[in-house]
Amino acid sequence: MSYYYSKTVSGEFDKIEEKVTNLLKEEGFGVLTEIDIQQTLKKKLDVDFRKYKILGACNPPFAYKALQAEDKIGLMLPCNVILQEATDKNIEVSAINPSTSMDTVGNPKLTSVAEQVSEKLKKVIDKL
């Protein structure tokens, strides 16, 4: 089982990001954080890097369930979704597979929550 779901789509980076954000909303997620790796690496290291963003997505009801089952699970939240420029006009979108990451915790109470969140994130990728 892979630790992520991924799909490469054609289009403009900003438009794909907007579509991903809207698809996340449809599945009950909000984007809590956005890290622009390209901009950060330019600013901090003065290096050029392809367009690459990390979106920290959160589905509050599932986050609450996970926190009730495991108080340190916040170390693994939110669910990250990345967009990266693959080639000109091709953007790879990937989302974490929470089932894989939650398995490392070893708490069976997280299994159901992780499976449900995994299904939702996989839907987002599949709908692109």
Compose a concise summary of this entry.
The protein has 128 residues and is α+β, with helices and mostly antiparallel strands. It has a single domain, classed as TT1751-like domain (TATA-Binding Protein, 2-Layer Sandwich).
Task: Characterize the structure shown.
There is one protein chain. This protein is of the alpha+beta class. The protein has one domain (4-126): TT1751-like domain (TATA-Binding Protein), CATH 3.30.310.70. The chain has 5 helices and 5 strands. A 5-stranded antiparallel beta sheet has the order 1-5-4-3-2. A hairpin with a 2-residue loop joins strand 4 and strand 5. The model has no long low-confidence stretch (mean pLDDT 96).
Helix/strand order, N-terminal first: EHEHEHEEHH
Distance between the termini: 21 Å
Fold-level CATH name: TATA-Binding Protein
Tell me the quaternary state. Answer: single chain
Task: Provide the β-strand percentage band.
Answer: 25-35%
The CATH superfamily title: TT1751-like domain
Q: Which range best describes the helical content: under 10%, 10-25%, 25-40%, 40-55%, 55-70% or over 70%? A: 40-55%
The tally of beta strands, per DSSP, is 5
**How does the helix and strand content classify structurally?**
alpha+beta
CATH architecture name: 2-Layer Sandwich
Helix run count: 5
* Spans where pLDDT lies below 50 across 5 or more residues: none
Strand arrangement in the largest pleated sheet: 1-5-4-3-2
> Mean pLDDT, rounded to whole units?
96
